[in-house]
TrEMBL record:
One Pfam match: PDEase_I
Region (Disordered): 1-31
Active site: H656 (proton donor)
Name of the featured protein: 3',5'-cyclic-AMP phosphodiesterase
Top EC class, one word: hydrolase
EC number: 3.1.4.53
Pathway(s) it belongs to: Purine metabolism; 3',5'-cyclic AMP degradation; AMP from 3',5'-cyclic AMP: step 1/1
GO molecular function: 3',5'-cyclic-AMP phosphodiesterase activity; metal ion binding
UniProt keywords, alphabetically: cAMP, Hydrolase, Metal-binding
Organism this protein belongs to: Drosophila albomicans (Fruit fly)
Similarity field: Belongs to the cyclic nucleotide phosphodiesterase family. PDE8 subfamily.
Annotated PDEase domain residues: 574-908
Length: 930
């Protein structure tokens, strides 16, 4: 089978070729050619998965094996036999080149050319040549070579590559050959390559003029698949579609010559913020005059453009420029993304892999290492290797300098445990130069059986992040759990005849008494439930508010009426309309660029999205935190989910509407970012569940409190027995809506276990927003993270610390409004007061118990209510959270707002009308941010 124009020839006679270890081609009845075709098919099939290593023959190098030659397994046809033996790796590498070259030429297996021996081209006896015949005039010579270079398949000092016309290489070709000499050693440690798809370029040019034409031609010359669009909207639309089908553009070239037709800076910035495009190469074509001063170019580069190139009508110049970009930007980007994938794979490997630097300090450890050592990553990284071994390591360190590998038994020290003898293999590798810069350790128990690690006692969840490393705050737990606090105890529980292993065995009567006392403590329910601070305020408004927020429903249960409910129950699905303009609203996109900053203007978003802030902000957060990938779900499902959740927030509520949900989600995003900055990394699933919980935490809120629902015999209060009524409802309806419609089921691609854990996290976070347990959550958080003792010592598992942290995160986000820039803080205070007033109005009208009598629109002092709210609920919590997360602007804003409320109070500015009269319109930038 010959392909016109392409021939791949071997300049050296090739002996029998060993097959891949899976030995799928051992059928001796096949012709060598059939076998080769099949071989290629296998190789190609295996290459389908980028992480699958190339097939390697595990047998010793430089040998042929009985049966190979007899079976006709050879590099070429039977005429190839004889001559000097080649190393099997080289032979196999050449086979891979064959496949690679074919792929680069877009040839199918059917078109595969026959390998022939070309003895006459062999320039000398010591050199093996692979001659690739140049099939056409503009054959991508360099592309093949570079691909070979990347694959590092040809490294032997004796093996030269030449891509040409099949004739004996000329002296200049010989120079090229030398460039591609490779060290045979590298064959042993092949580089895993990035995927090698057809490169795609998106050209964004306002009009098809001569410059656009030259850029298009240059792209085509380099075999790029070109798409031309004329506007930003078209560009974003194309990118979005390409992202959904995993056919991403590698290169985007934007016409930046004039801002009239296109705003290149804005386009670049938007693309950079679009999910999946952080490694896309963006090039701006600029006027030559731009290069005379730097401001315009720097603005473009700051917006995310990788390189600015000058407009030209000269095809050669443009082509060279493009080539440089392909080599210096696109390829490294490709490699980087592959490395990331490799890291992920390595991290999840069952085998224990640990990497040290040349001074034997641990640089990397995968999850299995954490399990083996029973330590968290942050306890392992940077440690001297000697700390985790009982054995003397002098053999390794001495060998690391001079000898290549170590293979032997060493005893590993598990945290808090005896040593475990392990079979350790050490491979030195060099990042720079040839002396080892790193050592890779691979552990095994003597005799194999890696499942052994799974049998070791483990922390409940794979440890991650470094929660324990939070700044210790000087928080005084007693300020919360003071004498005035009530503890609930269940007499029944304490009287149960509970016995535990620690009880009275081997101890004196005194010790037994002490243990009894401790047990009595521990058996109490609500160990951390200080529940309510004594409200030492003369202010009845604060007393009213705090009392209503922190007290359960029983207080008001005596005066129930049986009036109807205000909440729809049953199948109340609301039609969610995704705004048509969502994709391409530049004003919204511009605002969302600031979506992680603490002074983000949520009210402006509410206005410009026509009261769909949750949909827009939600999508932005999901994009920024990779939620689509984490849930393995299409963006459109998330979009539909957000739209449905938003539709189930009541627009008629002044406070508990979707703007509040978006605000809490925004704060959550800001906190996650700050946690990451502080290296207290949440894993991707924790981030996703936190954002989902934030978005849904008040869904279907009726604008009335739980106490109101209980007092009015609302069906929800009946359903939930007056306990955590609203929060239970928010959590339940979130899952009811999500699971009830496949089109919005963002969890549908999660496996059972992951879904179970995500559901539990989301429910726990939503329930944590209930204010009656405010002090309980705060006290627990402070006692664990504010203690001098390691959190690990205070809680049962890493998971428990993580739960405490997530609860506090959503709680702070939920009531962060008094710590927002003043203008927003005042607007939120207006909204919540208005909602309280409406509740009071309804309670009066329906003759229900009045939950907060002081919240009467005729008499209420807003400043007083806010002063009380900050003093009793917000202040301690913000300080605790700031100590943990280090966001001083929370405290600064809170203090400024507090002073302002005090001022209004002193001035007698009390009513909503008075306060609002003093405010600039919302949507203007606040003055006290940052
Ligand atoms: N600025 C504020 N002033 C008074 N109460 C508030 C303020 N912000 C939030 N809250 C209350 O705190 C509660 C937190 O949980 P919810 O969102 O269910 O309902 C919230 C309000 O009742």
């Amino acid at each position: 089978m010959k392909v016109p124009g392409v021939e791949i020839s071997l300049a050296t006679p090739v002996p029998a070729m060993p097959m891949p270890s899976h030995g799928r081609l051992s059928n001796s009845s096949k012709t060598p050619e059939q076998m080769e075709l099949e071989y290629e098919a296998n190789v190609a099939a295996e290459r389908g998965d980028i992480m699958t290593p190339l097939p390697r023959d595990p047998r010793p190098q430089g040998m042929t094996f009985p049966g190979d030659a007899a079976a006709g397994v050879g590099m070429g046809n039977s005429s190839v036999g004889g001559g000097r033996n080649m190393q099997p790796e080289i032979v196999e590498a050449i086979r891979n080149l064959d496949a690679q070259a074919l792929r680069l030429n877009n040839l199918t297996l059917e078109d595969r050319c026959q390998l022939t021996t070309q003895q006459e081209n062999k320039p000398d006896d010591d050199t093996d040549y692979v001659v690739l015949r140049r099939p056409q005039k503009h054959h991508p010579f360099d592309r093949q070579c570079h691909s070979l270079y990347e694959r590092r398949l040809y490294k032997g000092p004796k093996l030269h590559l030449w891509v040409g016309n099949g004739k004996k290489p000329s002296p200049s070709d010989d120079d090229d050959l030398k460039t591609f000499q490779r060290n045979l050693m590298d064959l042993k440690y092949p580089t895993v390559l990035p995927p090698n798809p057809q490169l795609k370029a998106l050209l964004v040019f306002h009009k098809s003029d001569s410059i656009c034409e030259v850029v298009t031609l240059a792209c085509q010359r380099h075999q790029l698949d070109v798409t031309l669009v004329k506007s930003k909207e078209e560009a974003l639309d194309t990118l979005q579609k390409s992202y959904a089908t995993a056919q991403c553009y590698h290169l985007i070239i934007i016409d930046a010559r004039s801002t009239k037709g296109l705003d290149a800076e804005h386009i670049a910035r938007t693309i950079r913020h679009t999910h999946g495009h952080h490694l896309t190469t963006i090039i701006a074509v600029c006027k030559k005059s731009f290069f005379e001063k730097d401001d315009a170019l720097i603005a473009l580069l700051d917006a995310g453009v990788n390189r600015c190139i000058a407009e030209t009508t000269n095809l050669a110049m443009c082509s060279v420029e493009l080539k440089q970009i392909l080599h210096s930007i696109i390829r490294p980007h490709n490699v980087m993304s592959t490395q990331q994938a490799l890291y992920t794979a390595l991290h999840r490997l069952k085998e224990v892999v640990l990497i040290t630097d040349d001074l034997l300090r641990i640089q990397y450890a995968n999850r299995a290492t954490e399990r083996l050592l029973n330590m968290r990553l942050d306890e392992i990284i940077s440690k001297p290797l000697a700390d985790i071994f009982v054995s003397d390591l002098s053999t390794i360190s001495e060998q690391g300098k001079s000898i290549k590998e170590f293979d032997g038994i060493l005893t590993v020290r598990r945290k808090n445990q005896e040593g475990i003898p392990m079979h350790v293999r050490v491979v030195p590798v060099a990042c720079i130069g040839s002396a080892p810069t790193h050592l890779i350790f691979n552990f095994d128990i003597p005799g194999g059986g890696m499942d052994f690690i799974a049998t070791l006692p483990q922390p409940k969840e794979a440890p991650r992040g470094s929660l324990h490393s939070v700044r210790r705050c000087s928080f005084d737990v007693r300020s919360i759990a003071s004498d005035g606090l009530r503890r609930t105890s269940l007499a029944k529980l304490t009287s149960l005849p509970l016995e535990a292993p620690i009880t009275k065995e081997n101890c004196s009567a005194d010790e037994a008494r002490l243990i009894d006392k401790v047990l009595e403590f521990l058996k109490r329910e609500g160990l951390y439930s200080p529940q309510m601070k004594e409200i030492r305020t003369d202010d009845p408004i604060a007393t009213d508010l705090i009392g209503a927020l922190l007290t359960g429903p029983s207080v008001y249960s005596s005066r129930r009426s049986s009036n109807d409910s205000i909440i729809r129950t049953g199948n109340s699905t609301r039609t969610a309309i995704v705004p048509a303009k969502m994709k391409a609203n530049p004003i919204v996109m511009e605002l969302l660029e600031e979506s992680l900053s603490w002074d983000f203007d949520i009210f402006k978003l509410e206005e410009i999205t026509d009261y769909h802030p949750l949909l827009y902000l939600g999508m932005e957060m999901f994009r920024r935190f990779d939620v689509f990938a984490t849930l393995n779900i299409d963006e459109n499902v998330c979009k539909a989910w957000l739209a449905v959740i938003e539709a189930h927030y009541h627009k008629s509520n002044t406070y508990h509407n979707s703007t509040h949900a978006a605000d809490v989600m925004q704060a959550t995003g800001a906190f996650i970012t700050q946690l990451t900055n502080r290296e207290m990394v949440m894993d991707r699933m924790d981030e996703a569940t936190a954002l989902i919980a934030a978005a849904a935490h008040d869904v279907d809120h009726p604008g009335r409190s739980s106490a109101f629902l209980s007092n009015s015999n609302n069906p929800l209060a009946i359903l939930y027995n007056d306990l955590t009524v609203l929060e239970n409802h928010h959590a339940a309806i979130t899952f009811k809506l999500t699971l009830g419609d496949d089109k919005i089921n963002i969890f549908k691609n999660l496996d059972k276990e992951t879904y179970k854990s995500a559901r539990s996290t989301i429910i726990d976070m939503i329930l944590a927003t209930e204010m009656t347990r405010h002090f309980e959550h705060l006290a627990k958080f402070v006692s664990v993270f504010g203690s001098e003792v390691e959190p690990r010592e205070l809680v049962q598992s890493e998971e428990e610390t993580s739960i405490l942290m997530r609860r506090m995160l959503i709680k702070v986000a939920d009531v962060s409004n008094p710590a927002r820039p003043m203008q927003y803080c005042i607007e939120w205070a207006r909204r919540i007061a208005e909602e309280y007033f409406m509740q009071t109005d309804e309670e009066k009208q329906r003759h229900l118990p009045i939950v907060m009598p002081m919240f009467d629109r005729a008499t209420c002092s807003i400043p007083k209510s806010q002063i009380g709210f900050i003093e009793y609920i917000i202040q301690d919590m913000m300080h605790a959270w700031d100590s943990f997360i280090d966001m001083p602007q929370l405290i600064t804003c809170m203090q400024i707002n507090y002073s302002q409320w005090k001022k209004y109070d002193e001035q007698g500015v009390n009513t909503l009308a008075d306060i609002m009269a003093k405010q600039p319109p919302v949507g203007n930038k606040p003055s006290n941010s940052k």
